[in-house]
Amino acid sequence: MNQYFATVANGLEPLVVQELEQLGAHSVKPGFCGAAFEGDRTLLYRVNLWARLPFRILMKLRQFPCQSAEDLYRGIQTIDWSEYLTPDLTLAVNATGKTDQLNHTHFTALQAKNAIVDQQQEQFGDRSNVELQEPDVQINIHIDREGCTVSLDSSGNSLHRRGYRPAVGAAPLKESLAAALIQLSGWQPEQMFYDPLCGSGTLPLEACLKSLNIAPGLFRERFGFETWLDFDLNLLEGLIQEAESNQRDTLPAPIWGSDRDAKVIEQAIANAQTCGVLDQIWFSEMDLSEVVAPTDSGVVFCNPPYGERLGRDTDLGAFYKQLGDVLKQRFKGWTAFILSGNKELAQSIGLKSSQRIAVYNGTLPCQLMKYELY
């Protein structure tokens, strides 16, 4: 059994514990911005392929006491790097956290890299080149009061970058956060899903992938573990085949998205096409004033601009009031979820929320507000 750590956005730790357990992980324990778990190589590949919430899945190699640069160098050299890295493979070292003496992540990463390549020079008379963009082996160093944790990053590019979304609007929601919001809402695929401010379509697309049981990792070009020395191509291909055979053919209930901006609707359609769900999902150019509920009940979901990047110069208060009026007058029998990073604007909605869940959109504290529309 290997030890792993899935990193997630702050506040989503309980959700990722639930997701990892559903995927078959053992000994799952929440930590800061993630969860530790145990499992074999099959589980590692499966979690990378299926998990909707994490950014990265790290495989722990070693933990040791570490206060100074000397401690770090010595500790890194206790690992036999030839098990993970040969001189013809490129590497990159990423460092997080700090102590009083190791308080600069760039220096920490450099010191760790030196310890690795010095060992290689001694062993092989040759060393790996550093490649920051697409390294063959990505090494993660985390420093805290417990010491230094050394891990390999099995994911490569962050898992939130599904690969289906080359086209994004001006203030895109991360795919992993969209999946988390849908999870938090308790929405079920049997309920209609409608986002009247859908932008480039992230919320409806994530709902669609969940509803059709499509693994989010299927759209990626590669995972980090594919260039590891112990990479098992047959295992990964088997898991991909299994994932593809478990997809559903049709949605149990409609999933819609609309937006007044014709360009972002074009992007949403392009993203749906990349996902292979264009024939399942409905996107349309429509102003909020024209929006009406298509059925008697369902879940309406939206992430309106909150003045951080979009709509800074427009009268957002009036827009939020209009959103509240549309929901109140035209969506009776529905449940609404609105993500807002601006409390004053949220009050302009003019509806009483039945629940508020604190979440972070990047570093911005937000609230996912639930409204029962009678």
From TrEMBL:
GO molecular function term, any single one: methyltransferase activity
Gene Ontology biological process: methylation
Source domain of life: Bacteria
PROSITE patterns: N6_MTASE, THUMP, UPF0020
InterPro entries the record matches: DNA_methylase_N6_adenine_CS, RlmKL-like_Mtase, RlmKL-like_Mtase_CS, RlmL_1st, SAM-dependent_MTases_sf, THUMP_dom
Residues in THUMP domain copies: 43-154
One Pfam family this sequence matches: THUMP
Protein name as it appears in the record: Class I SAM-dependent RNA methyltransferase
